[in-house]
Amino acid sequence: MKKLAQHSFICCFVLFFSIWQNATAQTAPTKPADNPATWGIKLYGFVRNDIMYDSRQLISAREGDLSLYAKDKSLDANSKDINAAPTFHMLAITSRLGGTITGPDAFGAKTSAILEAEFFGNFDGGINEFRLRHAWAKLDWSKTQLAFGQYWHPMFVTDCYPGVIDFNTGMPFQPFNRSPQVRLTQKLDKGNKMSLIVAMLAQRDFASVAPSGYNANDPMRNSTVPNMHLQFQYKDAKLVAGAGVDYKSLRPRLNSGTPNVVSNERVGSTSFIGYVKVITKPVVIKAEAVIGENLTDHVMVGGYLGYVATPGAVETYDATKTQAYWMDITGTGKKIVPGFFFGYTANNGAKSGASAAYGRGIGASGRGIKNIFRVSPRVEFISGKFKFGTEIEYTAAQYGTFGNNSKVIGATDKINNTRFLLATTFSF
């Protein structure tokens, strides 16, 4: 693994250096001349309030504002389901403030940046705290963009994601992750329709699950191998389509076993995405498929399992496999915008013999997720900068008993939740 880390770093350095040389040789893109009068920051954002009713207790974050799926049944002494209790809440914590920043040219490239934050907090106890979303600086040449900072993970495709009203943005079917990264985007054709995207990323706010005693981002930091991503994208006025591959390597523990010894065990995971967006006059149709491993850091079902071959042995690991699909149809009206979302995801487990699990909805024993299904119709009413949106979100999770490979065996229970949501948004 040490050689893998060294080779990964060398390959990335060579790739970025070669494209950097190509970029600095390019002329700046055809834009207005470098003008100090245009430098500065332009503020943007919105004030949003969510009013929500759920028919059941949820697996969620921030007091239910970020909903994922219904909690499993929990029976009391009279065999009544404790989690069947509904909830009602109102929150304005997704309200947001950001700025687009421009400055003088550098290295023959146009410079720009985004700095954005919101009041969502980093954990339930931190609700209302101002937290960083994006800190993203870019250098743009005619066919090359080099960017640094915290921004959307390339698996969250900004040109193709669900238009749902719920703040969950289609989770746990849609990958959702913002990460510190270095990203290079290279245009490949004369019309600038084909792009190659290469990125190296770290984990921070969105991270894999770590064993007890470790911080969430420790396993990737200790692996010394960055998350690597490669993606091809085609984009024109009527069509966006692309496919990508993503690889990450974790070192969950520094020590393990009895007696306690240094552990160099890693868990590698590879994921693939494919997506398409078709723009027509009456509707915009978007769809995506994700086949991946250890997708916890994307707020999806999955993770990795731990194995101890003999009592006291060093723990080894294997990533669980997840598949997810979604489709979203949105109207193109200016004042009334209907839409419909469909999503499906399944937990496909890992190899047998596990004794521990690190992730979301998975396990080596007990109960957990087999699959999740969602449908959610919506409609938005827009007037100027003000918008009312309402959505009915039905999510059904199949729960069952895990084997030691995190696959559900035997009978399952369908546990569903219906969310009624009203959101008001004033943008500026």
Describe the protein in words:
The protein has one domain (2-427): Porin (Beta Barrel), CATH 2.40.160.10. The chain is globular and about 70 Å long. The protein has 2 helices and 24 strands. A 16-stranded antiparallel barrel has the order 1-5-6-7-8-9-10-11-12-15-16-19-20-22-23-24. The chain has a 3-stranded antiparallel beta sheet with strand order 18-17-21, with no helix packed on it. The chain has a two-stranded antiparallel sheet with strand order 2-3. β11 (227-235) and β12 form a beta hairpin. The model is unreliable at 27-32 (pLDDT under 50). With 428 residues, it is mainly beta.
Brief descriptors of the model:
globular; 53% strand; mainly beta; 428 residues; Porin
* DSSP summary, beta strand count: 24
Which fold does the CATH topology refer to? Porin
Taking the sheet with the most strands, its summary is: 16 strands, antiparallel, barrel
Number of helices: 2
Stretches with pLDDT under 50, minimum 5 residues: 27-32
Helix content range: under 10%
> Quaternary state, please?
single chain
> Which architecture would the CATH scheme give at its second level?
Beta Barrel
